[in-house]
Amino acid sequence: MKRIRLTVSALLFSLCGMAQGSTDYGSGLKFNLNEDGSKYMRFIAWNQIWFRSSQMNPGTMIADEAATTNTDIANRRLRLLAYAQISKRYMIVTHFGINNQTFSNGGVNGSSGTGGYGAGKKPGMFFHDAWNEYAVVLPQADKKFSMSIGGGLHYYMGLSRMTMASTLNFLTIDAPIFNWPLIDNADQFARQIGLFSKGKYGKLEYRFSLNKPFATNLTPVNVTDPNNAVAVDNSGNTKWSKAGYLEYQFLDQESNLLPYKVGTYLGTKKIFNLGAGFYTAADATRTSVNGTVDKHDMKLFAADAFLDLPIGEVSKKMAISAYSVFYNYDFGPNYLRNIGIMNVGIANPSFTGNRALAGVGNTQPMIGTGSIWYTQAGFLLPTKAEKPKLRVQPYGSYTHKDFEALDKASSQFDLGANFFLDGHHAKITTQYSTRPIYTATDKIDGSKGEFLVQLQIYL
Prior knowledge:
Elements: H1 2-18, E1 29-32, E2 40-55, E3 60-62, E4 65-66, E5 69-85, E6 90-101, E7 126-137, E8 145-154, E9 192-201, E10 204-212, E11 222-223, E12 232-233, E13 241-249, E14 271-289, E15 292-311, E16 318-330, E17 336-339, E18 346-347, E19 364-368, E20 370-380, E21 391-403, E22 410-422, E23 426-440, E24 443-458
Parallel strand pairs: 11-14
Antiparallel strand pairs: 1-2, 2-5, 2-24, 3-4, 3-18, 5-6, 6-7, 7-8, 8-9, 9-10, 10-13, 12-14, 13-14, 14-15, 15-16, 16-20, 17-19, 20-21, 21-22, 22-23, 23-24
């Protein structure tokens, strides 16, 4: 009975952690498989719909028309997650859905033009997570140590708290993307197939994994000067990657039932954590100099801090949330990756001005060999109502990138606010974001902006 009570307590603890800021959500879509609830299945469904008004990089065309701006509505994430605690030791997790469907792209492979499979239509659903897990040492009140092991397509990718972030409870409208440095190259939407171990020792939480990265085969451009060599993702018969993350939780302890790290608890917990992590993979990229191809190891490291606290008078329900992370990335010489979220732009062949080095649409230098410092902070405004109909949380973030491939470092920011109708379960988020426009490796020709509105509901 003691073990059953501990299992149920752990479950309730995890459910409370997932229901940040909502007093009415309860255990959500949960189905007990026995009388005491120690065997259960839970479903989580969420949609994130974006409205955007964006300034396009110079030289952009949308469809067959030149464009300096774009306004659209898109499906950022449409997801369903299911997990079952079959016994106190066994758990199975599956998570599938779609991402990034716009009016012109993001549809099924090969979709284009007009008709039933026209541009952007009928995207293919795929598994984001699918793993089995076994608790070797169960968490117990009178013991400091716990450990679970598992295998499959998983999210225990180490490196940083934000590398394993939940997409349900971001402070900002989204992750900054460079927190997932392998995104859809050597991973499947921030996941790899492998083995993992997780657990706690007192206030120290640990996560380690051994994975087989997805194969990459980009061809490096051959150069005659070694200083101009540019590493690209080309792993051949991939070597096993290693990843890990250690986090010391000074105040309240966070649930580690699932890997997804909370972005903001809206004052429902007192959290102060310090963490550090890594990801390494041998022979993951290649360069070519005078016809000689060299392989390079991928060595990624990060350190971060997370603070989330209620402040002031209890009756006013105020809270602060802050997160800061420093990434040190080594993908090989001059590695640089340009990314634009749901980019609908294509190159305009008639454009005669200075093009952005990153490309067209809303692309920007996102990931590369070098360093990134990212910080975000938010404040949950006070309320006098016992059950307020609306909570407001203004926030801001700052990013500093210094990549080896670019002679000049860049800075950018995001400003926005969350409008909580029912905690993170029903919220509207507005955000204005900037990105630098490089026209040469040593020249930033100002910046472009993007205004976003997100409607999120999750159950």
